[in-house]
Amino acid sequence: MNLRPHAGLARVLDDLGGTLLDLVLGDGDPPGSIGGVAIHDPLDEPALPQNALVLGVGLADPDEVVRQLRTLARRDAAGLVLRAPVTVTAAITAAVEETGVALLSLARGASWTQLAAMLRSLLAEGDVGDARRETLAGLPSGDLFAVANAIAALIDAPVTIEDRRSRVLAFSGRQDEADPSRVETILGRQVPERFARMLAERGVFRELYRSDQPIYVDRPAGSPAGFMLPRVAVAVRAGEEILGSIWAAVSEPLTPDRAQALRDAARLVALHLLRVRAGADVERRLRADLLSTALEGGPAAREALSRLGLADQPVVVLALAVLETGAADAELAAGRQRLSDGLAMHLSAVHPRCAAALVGDTAYGLVPVTRDTDAEQRALRIAQDFLDRVGDRVRAVVGIGPVARSAAELPEARGSADRALRVLRSGSGAGRRVALLADVHVEALLLELQDLVAARGDRPTGAVARLLDYDAQHQAHLVETLRAWLDAFGDVIAASAAVHVHPNTFRYRLRRLAEVGGFDLTDPEARFAAMLQLRVVAPPPS
After folding, report:
1. Residue 484: which CATH number?
2. What average pLDDT score do residues 378-393 get?
3. Fewer C-beta neighbours within 10 Å, C or N terminus of the chain?
4. C-alpha to C-alpha distance for 187 and 204, rounded to whole angstroms
5. Are 405 and 416 in contact (CB under 8 A)?
């Protein structure tokens, strides 16, 4: 349930217009609220909420745009967003007039994922709690865009509200009065690294977080005129905790009255940020509980899927994990949660009914599919695209299960995803970051055999045991030689190169290990038994 009414198209254009969105054709203030955001998918037509705003990712052909406008009109959509620049033809103009579906453009340089996140924040989708409208100081609770606009009106300057990592949480209107650096910040939804570094080197963040008063930040010496205006910033606190900051683009220091207004506004922003955080925590817990219930199967799974909007829908299970980095537990837990939130956002851009949440130390995603033939490969591409976007900042891996056609099949699909994920986490996946269980089935079986061996306390036997004992007593390398020879399928040249010895030396060691271990190198059963023991029972190579 939502804590406040959804915004209309006019509100969306007021808050995001001029920076992210522009109205190309149509009525910018139609009646009714925007019911939600959906992604255009030509291969899998999404379910649309009433008065949806549809993101036309990859849609550019004028004839296809006309067809989509007419299709969306039949489905009661409010608007269609295309990547700028939009080619406006007579047919498109006529279609907009005929259908009443507004045509908007997304600024070049802004990502679709960013737009979806901004719209979700603005429309308050997914809030959990009481359906009553709640306010803080007369503004809808948690509506940071409304707060930003109110602050801009109080101090007569465009503002951004940012978190501790200089990520933009919301921004006011009138950003066209700011400067190119502010536009770049909003388009990237993050203060660019070079600006953040410059502010840190000048000691701005240190001063900002040490004071409860607004500070004036003059533009850097030597910067091009008009490229960067001065800023006034104030920290947003909840007790001793720094939640973020407010940044206003100004031409001169604020008057005392406006500086006091900004300081007072910081307290209000703190309340809204705490409300947003509390709501997000509640939603995360709820979605994690529902997802966990669905993945476990049983009588409650169908109801959980229904509440997630996935009843009677075939899905593919994704399992995402962060590889251990030696970071502190708290830092690792925060990293997992950020990655889980990122996965949820990424999947929502793929399909509006995707579900994702952190369960334990693994983030699970459910991706609805319509066809079994290429569903797993499509899920693999989605996961790979997500990890490519994350880049090298976080070392993460994703296991993918088979299609689950009903709630009863979800536990098996989750188990398959977990098995593939375990292989990737163990480093046995040949460098893969994403894998289907079919890709790493043998490696998964070997890990499970290792579990069985460890539980029973089995030790090496036969030829392998004799070679291990001989190496321990004589500091020899017979086990290493056998392992290399088996891995190279009996190719002495390749095996000797792998252990960095001359081929003749390697041949001598082969003869010696056959004598010491009583090992028949020509017997395929003996070779298989040795290979299995070396992989599963014997200690790993040093």
Report:
1. 1.10.10.2840
2. 85
3. C
4. 23
5. no
Does residue 87 sit in the same domain as residue 115? yes
Please answer whether residues 374 and 389 qualify as being in contact, where contact means their C-beta atoms are separated by less than 8 angstroms. no
Which is nearest to 316 in space by CA: 371, 396, 358?
Answer: 371
Q: How far is CA 304 from CA 301, 309, 337, 345, in A?
A: 5, 9, 22, 20
Q: Which amino acid is at 270?
A: A
Residue 36 exposure: Cα atoms within 13 Å on the Cβ side = 17
- What is the residue type of 58? G
Range of the domain at 466: 459-536
Reply yes or no on whether the pLDDT at 283 is more than 90.
Answer: no
Verify that 325 and 445 share a domain, yes or no: yes
Same domain, 189 and 265: yes
CA atoms of 144 and 6, how far apart (whole Å): 14
Does residue 17 lie within any of the structural domains? yes
d(CA 485, CA 16): 64
The amino acid sitting at 113 is T
Determine the pLDDT at residue 4. 41
Predicted local distance difference test score (pLDDT) of residue 356? 86
Q: What is the mean pLDDT of residues 342-354?
A: 80
Residue with tokens 């792998």: 498
Greater model confidence, 110 or 498: 498
Secondary structure of 345-411 as H, E, C letters: HHHHHHCCCCEEEEECCEEEEEEECCCCCCHHHHHHHHHHHHHHHHCCCCCEEEEEEEEECCHHHHH
DSSP state of 60: -
Same structural domain, 321 and 261: no
Domain CATH number, residue 258? 3.30.450.40
Strands 159-163 and 168-171: antiparallel
Total count of residues recorded for the chain: 542
Residue in 216, 220, 265, 274 with CA at minimum distance from that of residue 242: 274
